[in-house]
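TICKET #2291
ISSUE: user wants both folds in one file
ATTACHMENT 1:
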Amino acid sequence: MSYHASFRCVAGCEGSYPLDEVIYECPRCTELLEVRHDTEALQHRSAASWMKLFDERWMTTRWPYGSGVWGKKEWVAPGVRDDQVVSMAEGGTNLFWAERYGRSLGLEDLWIKLCGNSHTGSFKDLGMTVLVSVVKQMIADGKAIRAITCASTGDTSAALAAYCAAAGIRAVVLLPKGKVTTAQLVQPLANGALVCAVDTDFDGCMDFVRRLSKEPGVYLANSMNSLRLEGQKTVAIEIVQQLDWKVPDWVIIPGGNLGNVSALGAGFDMLAELGLIQRRPRICVAQAQQANPLYTAYTRGWHTFEPMTAGATEASAIRIGNPVSVRRAIRTLERYDGVVEQASESELAEASVAADRTGAFTCPHTGVALAALEKLVASGTIRPQDKVVVISTANGLKFTDFKVRYHEGAIEGVSSRRANHPIELPHDYDNVKRAVLGSLDSGLFARPGTGGRG
């Protein structure tokens, strides 16, 4: 069976465009495009047969199907030739049973999807493998593309630089000067990208990148390019597959530029359309209070959306005031009976550390999602019996400065209630013994929650 996908206007305008055409917006109405698949062809294979195929490919060594993305190739980018795929075994990340943290909230069935356990440490790898593979094939087929460019708050630039380096394509990255972590800055530098630290915020960088992409031979890699979303939608498919093809009641995801929200919905939509699931989860988008334009629109009943100038937040990757995928995100939330919640700096920091104290190691953006989870549980919106999955978007190791400053009590407005400090001791066993046994005897040694396996 031959499978096919093309770009179509999200607003329903007539016309379709091949995935190897350099186009990002509908030429009729300027709305964003989305990738549409030939569902009729895909339906020739039964739901049970798709499940069996995807399970057989899971973590295989057969190129390129061991990737969590390319193991679903027919649903993602069927026209990409295997020899043009640029993959680093992205996806297939752990669905962590957060048993102790969940029980501390009154939940028995809480999971954290650790998307940061990927090549460059974030979920952005899932989309970049698709986009860079398509561009590599375009170049092989004679398209004059000189470089791929993106605006980034850190993680997108790391993924783009790594995949471009593997493909032998030049990457051009625009970052807001002084607003990304050292780890996020060094990643694209190490992979040889042209990195421009611009004295503006993400939205300013995005404006420049959109203008750059109109120059000959410069291809745009931000999530307004829906090739990215095709890879990112596999998060939804993986979650269901890892839960033995069962659907959670809730999925909570941090939201910045909001492409990940519509990608999540697209994944569940395909699962439902092809008969692999019979119901959909509810979705919560979690935003930092300092960068919360979607939350504000939600509280107004979606009547108006107003961009904002995002304020400083520890959740730097979602410090975005004018998200390009906002209309797609709102449509997804309306279909999924979705909600939007926000988290203050104190709430996101304390939620992140609470999860860490039960075995996780979370980035501040995951902290935003966990704070939203805590609020939804406290309000009764999420019930004790609900199966909940929180999307962890990046590896906590990319944000060690956030962790250090929390435990040093150095984050403004955060009381660091769970701060943990090293005990400095001389080279003397008696001192070490007193410190250790005294702590154990006094009960000062942290005991966050009860129970746990292993």
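ATTACHMENT 2:
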Amino acid sequence: MPEISLDQYKSLLTEIIKKQIIILGPDISLVKARNVAGLLVASDGSVTEIKGDPQQALQALIDQYVSLSGLIVKKTMEPLLSKYPSLKVD
């Protein structure tokens, strides 16, 4: 399977954060996203930089949101993640 570029990771992470802003509101969503080491997130939810392993950042971001609302969040992310079948996410 083809590798996912850094820009694709940024795009996916941004989509996840913006979807959570709609569900959870901007305050909680941005705080949780900014808890992820190596992720720089603008005030609109856009990921501007990923330092380190983008796969780890993706998993950490998902874990942040899942810890808040579990299966609800996981279900909302499935359609987004299905666009990238080469990603392995728990």
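RESOLUTION: both attachments delivered.
EXTRA DETAIL ON ATTACHMENT 2: Strands lie at 39-41, 47-50.
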